[in-house]
Amino acid sequence: MLSKRNQRSTPTCPSCAEVETHRHVLRCQSNQATIAFRTIERNFETWLQATTSDAIQLAIMKHLQGYRNEEYIEEPDEWSRQVQTASINQSALGPCAFVEGFVVKDWEMMQTEHLNSKNSKRNPGRWVK
Prior knowledge:
mainly alpha; 0% strand; 6 helices; single chain
């Protein structure tokens, strides 16, 4: 990534020597990258805990982990039908869509329900962005 901006002379990742792309930055499995990812992941999970339902949080974190580990998402039976549908629809957009900002409307609809149940005035559309 930095080589494209002429900030580094080689296009390889400094941590693992693979070609560094925008996807590789989050998927790099080196120790240094994993530590950085876990920190960001914890911060994101803390934000989710403060802003949404447990069900939405678990599904979103599963999608994030699936992206990082290049794994297909399987919806557990204990997830509600609504969460399963959102996850299936999200997966249908492709494995990179969620992390790259392409989010299905199902998440926003569930977030609207969550915020309404809390009598919150927060904007679910803004939460999705």
